[in-house]
Amino acid sequence: MYITPCVSVCQVDAFTGVCIGCKRTQKQINLWRDYTDDQRMEIMKSLGYGKRMSKEERLRRYDRG
């Protein structure tokens, strides 16, 4: 099991290539299972997690990997 910023609003913006739910790029989403815990945490930090307590962060779920 590992942490993920996914909020089950999975729709990638065709223009930006970023998910409107979790704000990850399509590449990050595709490779999420292959990243190390440290890599995932760096991405989470870059998305703003840990700096604020947003609705998305409260709704964040844990995926089984």
How do you describe this structure in short?
The protein is mainly alpha-helical and 65 residues long.
Q: Give the DSSP E fraction (strand runs of 2 or more residues).
A: 5-15%
Biggest pleated sheet: 2 strands, antiparallel
| Secondary-structure element series | EHHHE
Number of strands: 2
Radius of gyration: 11 Å
> How would you classify the helix and strand content by structural class?
mainly alpha
Report the uncertain regions.
none
Fraction of residues in helix: 25-40%
Query: What is the residue-averaged pLDDT?
Result: 82
Q: What is the CA–CA distance across the termini?
A: 5 Å
- Order of strands, main sheet, comes to 1-2
Structure annotation, total helices: 3
Categorize the overall geometry.
Answer: globular
Description:
The protein has a two-stranded antiparallel sheet. It has 3 helices and 2 strands. The radius of gyration is 11 Å and the shape is globular. The protein has helices at 26-31, 37-46, 55-59; strands spanning 2-3, 62-63. It is mainly alpha-helical and 65 residues long.
